[in-house]
Amino acid sequence: MTPAPDTRPLLRQLARGPAERRAALIHPGGLPATHYRPLAAALAAHGTPYLVDLDALPQFVFAARHGGDTDLSGLVDTVTEVLDAHHLLDQRTTLGGWSGGGTLACAIATGLPPPRRPGRLVLLDSLPPWSGTGADSIEDTAALLPEFGRYLAARAGVPAPDPGAIRPAPPPGQEQANSHDQWLWGFRQAALAVGALDEGVGLPGLRKVFQSYRWGLLRNRRLGSGAAPGAVTMPTTLIRARDSIIPDDDVPGWRAVPHLRTVVVPGNHYTMLTEPASVELISAELAEDTPAVRDPLRLGPR
Amino acid sequence: MTAPHETGDEHAPTTVAPDADTIREWLVTQVAARTGVPTSEVDVDQFLDEFQLDSTEALVLAGELENWLGVEVSPTALWYHPTIARLARHLAASGIGNDAGT
Question: Which residues form a coiled coil (chain B) (predicted)?
Fold first, then answer.
């Protein structure tokens, strides 16, 4: 096999900070790793922040390009090994992740013996590993487009397209286009209006991006499968964006976790890493010293 | 970013399988248009991700390439053949094949 050209490290230190406390975040791609800069800056006052960038793993990247059918069974072991190699698996570490990164963090933590378990888990708008949310929920193009719009808008740094403005429209000269293409073309117009897409993106390119986005979601929902809620024994915080990607019917999946509390932060799934108010709340959770359980864990109102 | 085109599938697929030079020229034109640099400044041996193309833009480019070639390009072709020159050679040599890494 040709060596992969991408030589980015799987784990990197995001900023200098006190060595006695560490926050290790797992990044599942989707957004550039630069989105963690505000959080890293805030965390550095309390400890040393690290990022595990799953985009450095070919099998992870390929899973989003092949319909999510790549074998991801070794992912937990691979990430565990790199955390171990950097001596990050003990009580001094808060382990967390955004989106699918949190799902994987949960699966990793539950598979470790107690001495090597992180002191806390902080999961940023993540689905539980046992949620069972599969392909069905992302097959509907029309239903997925508003979230796709939020994704593109976060990347472009612009407001998300109004979901109400996303309506099917035939591409020029293709009045008989299939429903999928009509929805994509209508979406393109809504995205162009807010600057979430560039004028240069035509239907073929948009199809490719949307396909990869859909497959990436499917891949991320397979992360950490096999973990069980009862095995999450460390204090765990689920931080949900006010406009969360987590469907309401997945919330009971988290309810089964002992010692879980939830925090709601401003923004949506894709802006929560960069919105100042959200960053402040997330960094406070990640930097929290004592793994004390404060409330009997109710999932708070959104 | 400059718009190379503005509508749907108006890039008609090529009628004959293009050779490596033709594919390279098409890629140079696309990258130049999307990054706003002259075609003469597009280095065909530079990694594609070193241009000002993020992963989404690279996917857009892959989609437009598929549309032009009229066949699906392996989703991982850009990973295994990460420069314009290498990708063009790969696609031409494989008859616009789809097997990544081969």
Answer: none
**DSSP per-residue codes, A246-272:** S-GGGHHHHHTSTTEEEEEEEEETTTT
Contact A209 B80 (CB under 8 A): no
Query: Which ipTM value was assigned to this complex?
Result: 0.71
Measure A3 CA to nearest chain B CA, in Å: 8
Q: Which CATH number fits domain B20-93: 3.50.50.60, 3.40.50.620, 3.40.50.1580, 1.10.1200.10?
A: 1.10.1200.10
Q: To which H or E segment does residue A124 belong? A: strand A120-124
User: Which positions ≥6 away from A66 have C-beta within 8 Å?
Assistant: A215, B75, B76
pLDDT in tens, chain A (302 residues): 334 445 679 999 999 999 999 999 999 988 888 899 999 999 999 999 999 999 888 888 888 777 656 667 789 999 999 999 999 999 999 999 999 999 899 989 988 998 899 999 999 999 887 766 555 667 889 999 998 999 899 888 899 999 999 999 999 888 787 899 999 999 999 999 999 998 889 999 999 999 988 888 888 877 766 677 778 889 999 999 988 877 666 666 788 888 788 899 999 898 999 999 999 999 999 998 644 434 333 344 33
Task: For residue B79, list chain A residues with Cβ-Cβ distance below 8 A.
Answer: 4-6, 58, 61-62
In this prediction the pTM is: 0.78
In angstroms, the separation between the Cα of residue B62 and the nearest Cα of chain A is 7
The domains found in chain A, sorted by start residue, are 11-133+222-287 (3.40.50.1820), 135-219 (no CATH)
SS3 assignment, position A240 = strand
Nearest CA in chain A to B33: A200
